[in-house]
Amino acid sequence: MSGGLGKLEELYSGIRFGQFVSVGAVGATAETIVVAILTAGYGLLPQLAKAAGAEVSITLMFLINDRWTFSEAGSEGWLAGGRRYLKSHLVRAGGLFVGFAVLTVLTSWTDVTLVVFGADLWPTVANAIGIGCGMLLNYLTEGLFTWRVGRE
């Protein structure tokens, strides 16, 4: 297929989207664990914990997506893989921005707490909401720019 519509049709694949969502769940779990440990366990600011968790998550998701979700879409070799890794970080900036914005709004502009066993888990929940909001943007940008799905 050629053109923008062909690319979008290839991204519309239920199987590929399901793989991406599954990988996203792994990444979100990793990020959530890091955020929970750093905020509830060490008292780190939610935004700093999110930055650390996001880096762990982005790297993990890139590795899985590169080998599974988009395995046929990228060129082989270490150099090509390194370029995709850098592109992945770049294009996920939009999803991270959305995640940070949602986390900031829900933790700084609201007076919500969710105390479980003595720990406030509201930053963890707010982070999970932000992750969900950035997922669709990440899917489109990763497919179109990192792995260039539909490119002839």
Provide a descriptive summary of the structure in words:
By secondary structure, this protein is mostly helical. Helices cover 76% and strands 3% of the residues. It is built from five helices and two strands. The protein has helices at 3-11, 14-41, 46-67, 78-108, 122-146, and strands spanning 115-116, 119-120. The chain has a two-stranded antiparallel ribbon with strand order 1-2. Strand 1 and strand 2 form a beta hairpin. The radius of gyration is 17 Å and the shape is elongated. The model has no long low-confidence stretch (mean pLDDT 85).
Mean pLDDT, all residues:
85
Structural class: mainly alpha
How many β strands by DSSP?
A: 2
Note the gap between the termini.
Answer: 8 Å
Which range does the strand content fall in? under 5%
Q: Report on the biggest sheet.
A: 2 strands, antiparallel
Adjacency order of strands in the biggest sheet: 1-2
Low-confidence regions: none
- What sort of overall outline do the alpha carbons produce when their principal axes are compared? elongated
What's the Cα radius of gyration? 17 Å
Helix tally?
A: 5
- Topology pattern, helix = H, strand = E: HHHHEEH
Helix content: over 70%
Give a quick precis of the structure:
This protein has 152 residues and is an all-alpha fold. It has helices at 3-11, 14-41, 46-67, 78-108, 122-146; strands spanning 115-116, 119-120.
